[in-house]
Amino acid sequence: MTESRLKHIRAVFDGPGISVDASDDGPDWFGADGPSNGAEALTPAAVLVPIVDRGDRPTVLFTRRTDHLKSHSGQISFPGGRMEERDATPEATALRETCEEIGLSEGDVELLGRLNVRETGTGYRVVPVVGMLAPPLSLVPDENEVAEIFEVPLDFLIDPANRRFETRVRGNVERQFYAIPYEEYFIWGLTARILVNLGDVLAKR
Fold it and tell me: What is the domain range of residue 45?
């Protein structure tokens, strides 16, 4: 990653704990009302969106969830999870969950800021926290939760030409969602919407 690119990515965010846009533009299924019209009914959660400095080819780090999990099994996701009482901020949640899932310590992450809050059809209100990682990375996946850790070029993920809409029926309702296929990976739903938001933010600033 060139120094100018690094500066640009850092410059588009206002700093850790500051959202570029605190509003939520709806649940991760387009056309859905979500589980409730009130945020108080949603479970607070946070994920880390890890951008990895790979020279002039920055990447984004993902996990693939294990197939035996009760929810979202086998799906591509960012490390993260629900907030706990000990977590003072969404950043604390994202870093704690990242450490638990892939063994990345807090000191390995340079926090940049937040993306838009997201509501999910499964009852979560998710704060995406963007962080920069500098190799070499020493990762230890939690075998119970994480089947695979992999990276995808940032430029591919934020290119609008690589986004598409998929349609599925859920609860007798036809709903659309973003999908970003990459090689053998199918990135969709909440993870894809966060990437679209990241791409839009990087393109506008």
Answer: 3-204
- Residue 33 sits in a domain whose CATH number is 3.90.79.10
Q: Give the whole-angstrom CA distance, residue 46 versus residue 128.
A: 6
Total number of domains constituting the chain: 1
CA distance 58 to 2: 9
Please give the Cα distance from 100 to 71 (Å, whole number): 18
For the stretch 167-192, pLDDT in tens is: 877 778 777 889 999 999 999 999 99
Question: Distance between CA atoms of 200 and 197, rounded to whole angstroms?
Answer: 5
* Angle, CA of 165, 168 and 174, to the nearest 5°: 100
The Cα–Cα gap between 140 and 144 comes to 12
Distance between alpha carbon 83 and the CA centroid of its chain, in Å? Answer: 15
> Percent of the chain at pLDDT above 90?
56
- The single-letter DSSP state of residue 106 is G
Question: What is the rounded distance in angstroms from the CA atom of residue 105 to the CA atom of residue 137?
Answer: 10
Asked if 182 and 103 touch (Cβ cutoff 8 Å), the reply is: no
Output the pTM of the full model. Answer: 0.86
